[in-house]
Every structure is written in C-alpha cells, then in structure tokens.
Amino acid sequence: EAQVTQNPRYLITVTGKKLTVTCSQNMNHEYMSWYRQDPGLGLRQIYYSMNVEVTDKGDVPEGYKVSRKEKRNFPLILESPSPNQTSLYFCASRSGQTDTGELFFGEGSRLTVL
Amino acid sequence: GQNIDQPTEMTATEGAIVQINCTYQTSGFNGLFWYQQHAGEAPTFLSYNVLDGLEEKGRFSSFLSRSKGYSYLLLKELQMKDSASYLCAVLDSNYQLIWGAGTKLIIKP
Q1: Contact yes or no for B84/B101 (Cβ under 8 A)
Q2: If you placed Cys at B104, which of A13, A46, B9, B83 could pair as Cys (CB 3.0 to 4.6 Å)?
Q3: Which residues pair with B89 in a beta bridge?
Q4: From CA A18, how far away is CA A85, in angstroms rounded?
Q5: B49-78 residues touching A, CB cutoff 8 A
Q6: Of the candidates B89, B91, B101, which has its C-beta nearest A40's C-beta?
Q7: Is B108 exposed, middle or buried (0-12, 13-18, 19+ CB in 10 A)?
C-alpha cells in the first residue's frame, strides 16, 4: 500500500530536549515536505526536499532541521524545542518537484512542548 | 505577496448543496487543488484544476477561472460525513503549494 509514515504520532516533551520526527514514504517520490498546522493559520511549510541531499527552507524554518540522506526518509529535527513549536506536523510527498499530481500526507504528529 | 482567501466557516443542511469559494493572488500558476481534512486527520486530495471550467467527480465539482483568480468547490447531496475542513491550494511558478487557511464546513441534520 502506498503510504507516508510518520512517527511518533503523539509526543509530549519539555523545552530544550532534542527530538526527531521520522517520515518515510514507499512510493519512490523525489519531493518531500514538512508542514506544521496551527488553528486559523492553515498549513505552513517548514522545509522541503526535491531529491536526495537537496533541502530548502520553507516559510517557517526557524528552530527546525532536516536531512535527506535516502530517497524514502525525511526526518524533522527539533534541536531545542520551545513551547511555540507545539503544533500538528505533517510530512508529505509527491512524485517530483514539477509534478502536478497530488500531495500524499502522513497521518500527522501532534507535538506538545511544555 | 502571495495570498489565498477562503471563508473561515460555513454551515449547510444535510441533503443540500454548498459552494465554497477560493480567491488567489500568486506568483504564477500551475494549478489549483482542493483537499478535504477531517479534524485531527491528514488532508486528502479531492480535485485539481489547471484549465478554466468545471470538473465533476461524483457529488463534488470544482470550478476554476484563471482570469479572475477564483475557484469554487461544489458539494451536492450533503452528508454528515462531509463535515470537515476544505483546503484550497495553488501551485505557484516555483511549483510550491500556497495554502489557504481552510473552510470549516458544518453539516446540520
């Protein structure tokens, strides 16, 4: 089954404790992206990757890091989480950067930073 | 700047028809998407329009006017399960998706 898998789905952590949210897709997609979603603000892009070893900042990259060492994986790293990073996070992928096909989303990771 | 506007919330009655509008101003245009998102879940793809006109897919239809920077999603024969947020997104000249804040649709019996 074609899917995007994120882990963990739910996490409560404390300020400053490094954490990683993993994302993996099994569709051989070149393009992957991370979004955060907050009430009233819609989806905001954090980082995206057009292919292995190629990453770019989105609209809200501050406080986040990513890596793309393999095509299927695109982890999101919060080096020193803060309460304003409490949010619902989605990983997504599509075939290619210039592909006009749909974006496939993971199930989401709800993060709370105390 | 780039901007996508859609109503924050709409209410409709089960069995009725509802139209959700979306207006956009973006740097270039490579198509417009509609996604459905139930509370706490991931968005799921509904439609993609790149040419002017109406695309029909079962109970859902999507319309695009590129000259007006305008689209709408039409939902017919509303069912309770259609209660969700509906997200409008435009693929800009750099093939980046610009998202609206979403329209929360409430269906009443």
Answers
A1: no
A2: B9
A3: B33, B99
A4: 12
A5: 50
A6: B101
A7: exposed
Q: What pairs with residue A19 in β-bridges? A: A78
The model's pLDDT over A13-62, given as tens digits with 9 standing for 90+, comes to 999 999 999 999 999 999 999 999 998 888 999 999 999 999 999 999 99
Tens of pLDDT along B44-56?
Answer: 999 999 999 999 9
Contacts of B32 (CB under 8 A, 6+ apart): B22, B24, B48, B49, B50, B62, B64, B71, B88, B89, B90, B91
Question: What residue of A is the nearest CA neighbor of B100?
Answer: A42
- Token pair in block for residue A84: 């304003």
Helix, strand or coil for residue A40?
A: coil
Q: Taking Cα atoms as reference points, which of A71, A42, A89 lies closest to residue B6?
A: A42
Q: Which residues of A touch B99 (CB under 8 A)?
A: 42-44
CA B59 from centre of chain: 14
B21, two tokens: 């509008």
